[in-house]
Every structure is written in structure tokens, then in C-alpha cells.
Amino acid sequence: MSKRPSRTPILRITSWPSLETDLKNAGGQWSDEPVVIDGRFITSRKPEDIPVFNMEIEKALSQTAGARA
């Protein structure tokens, strides 16, 4: 009896709107938000979202650095 491979958990993600269908077809949970954080993955949609994206990246990096100290 062969084992079925375990399924990869669904990743909650955002992206450029034209990629929505492809990401959903690949099993992602697409969301139309400036920034989506799912575990260690931080995604954003488009250049207008860069300030919010940068803020979230900085926050995540500072939390990681604080955990190592």
C-alpha cells in the first residue's frame, strides 16, 4: 500500500491582480489586500503598496532580530 503525499498547506497570498486565477489554480488562497502575511511569507500586490510592504518587512525583521537576542 503506497502512501499518498501530504498536501502542502494552502498559502494565503496577494499579488498583482492578473495572477489571481493562476495562484488560485495552484491552490493558493488569494486576497485583494495591500499586504498579506501568512507565517513567514509576506506578499504585496503592486508598487503603490510598497510603503506598507516595507513597514511589514521591517516589523518582521525586528521581531526576528529580537528573538535571536
Key words describing this protein structure:
single chain, 2 helices, flat, alpha+beta, 69 residues, two-stranded antiparallel ribbon, two-stranded parallel sheet
Considering DSSP H and I runs of 4 or more, what fraction of the residues is helical?
25-40%
Oligomer: single chain
Report the sheet with the most strands, covering strand number, pairing sense and barrel closure: 2 strands, parallel
Whole-number average pLDDT?
A: 88
In order across it, which strands form the biggest sheet? 1-2
* First and last CA, distance: 48 Å
Principal-axes shape call = flat
Strand residues, percent: 15-25%
Q: Rg, please? A: 15 Å
Number of strands: 4
Contiguous uncertain segments of 5+ residues:
none
Helix and strand composition category: alpha+beta
Order of helices and strands: EHEEEH
Number of helices: 2
Mind explaining what this structure looks like?
- The termini are far apart.
- The protein has 69 residues and is an alpha+beta fold.
- It contains two helices and four strands, in the order βαβββα.
- The chain has helices at 20-25, 50-68, and strands at 12-13, 29-30, 35-38, 41-44.
- Strand 1 (12-13), helix 1 and strand 2 form a beta-alpha-beta unit.
- Strands 1-2 form a two-stranded parallel ribbon. A two-stranded antiparallel sheet has the order 3-4.
- Helices cover 36% and strands 17% of the residues.
